[in-house]
Automatic annotation (TrEMBL):
InterPro entries cross-referenced by the UniProt entry: RCHY1_zinc-ribbon, Znf_RING, Znf_RING/FYVE/PHD
Domain RING-type: 27-69
Record's compositionally biased regions (Polar residues): 171-180, 219-232
Species annotation: Grammatophora oceanica
Region listing for Disordered, in residue ranges: 152-247
Amino acid composition bias (Acidic residues), ranges on this chain: 188-200
Pfam families: zf-RING_2, zinc_ribbon_6
Entry GO terms, CC: nucleus
SMART domains according to UniProt: RING
Entry keyword set: Metal-binding, Zinc, Zinc-finger
GO-annotated biological processes: protein ubiquitination; ubiquitin-dependent protein catabolic process
Protein name per its UniProtKB record: RING-type domain-containing protein
Biased composition (Low complexity): 208-218
Length: 247
């Protein structure tokens, strides 16, 4: 193809993802020329090209194309990570004094959505389910924003009790953040056995963190009792099932 510089099978030529000069430009990470480079290249879903080893390094800490900011993975690959983030948001509601009503733009489908509930873990696109969104504007803040969504302090307290208290929320939220990044980076590990061990470690770490948080919030509870309660918690079982489905 004289437009993008790709060498393509004739049967696939009419349907290939063509971007002018795609392989005639530099790698967006290392800035080496892609066309004359001896290193393998990789094409992201957005159509931009990148060295394969640069792509693996990039996805160890970020999941967006460095050129257009669209998700560098397919939506099927990102679904477990986004599900974990959505679960973390449901378990840790934003306090009324921190509430915001925002307008977002999705970097993946480019949909613009108004009057969305802000959360520090991210705002999910209602159209494509992506968390790769950008806050364009904030219309309300604080208790005015909470009142806009009909939130009350009593509801906030009930939400906290339903998931085991603020200590549990903070612990599980931190674990989900780490689990999301590790899951994406782990998907490119050459050793499949290491991937299995890593997934098991994520679940074990989550159970241990939730148990520690429960024990700290209840001084009379032993570590063994806290671990049992954390293992029996419905939200924990849901997360484990998500990880097993991903396997």
């Amino acid at each position: 193809c004289h437009d993008c510089g790709m060498c393509i099978d004739a049967l696939l030529f009419d349907d290939h993802n063509c971007k002018a000069g795609k392989y005639m430009s530099n790698c967006p990470v290392c800035q080496e020329d892609l066309f004359s480079s001896r290193s393998a290249s990789h094409e992201m879903p957005c159509g931009h090209a990148i060295h394969w080893h640069c792509f693996r390094e990039l996805t160890s800490f970020d999941t967006r194309c460095p050129v257009c900011k669209k998700t560098a993975e397919t939506h099927d690959q990102m679904a477990p990570t986004w599900s974990a983030m959505a679960m973390g948001i449901a378990l840790q509601p934003v306090p009324p004094e921190m509430a915001r009503v925002v307008t977002i733009i999705c970097n993946d489908c480019e949909e613009r959505e108004e009057d969305r509930r802000w959360h520090f873990l991210g705002v999910q696109c209602l159209k494509c389910s992506s968390f790769n969104t950008t806050v364009e504007d904030t219309t309300l803040m604080g208790r005015e924003a909470a009142a806009f969504f009909g939130d009350t302090e009593e509801q906030q307290g009930q939400d906290g009790e339903n998931v085991g208290g603020n200590g549990d929320d903070n612990a599980t939220s931190q674990l989900w953040n780490g689990a999301s990044n590790r899951a994406v980076a782990g998907s490119y590990d050459d050793d499949e056995d290491d991937d299995d061990d890593e997934s098991g470690d994520i679940v074990s770490d989550m159970v241990a963190a939730a148990a520690a948080a429960a024990a700290s919030s209840s001084p009379g509870m032993t570590n063994g009792q806290a671990t049992t309660n954390a293992s029996d918690d419905a939200s924990m079982r849901d997360y484990v099932s998500v990880m097993e489905d991903d396997e």
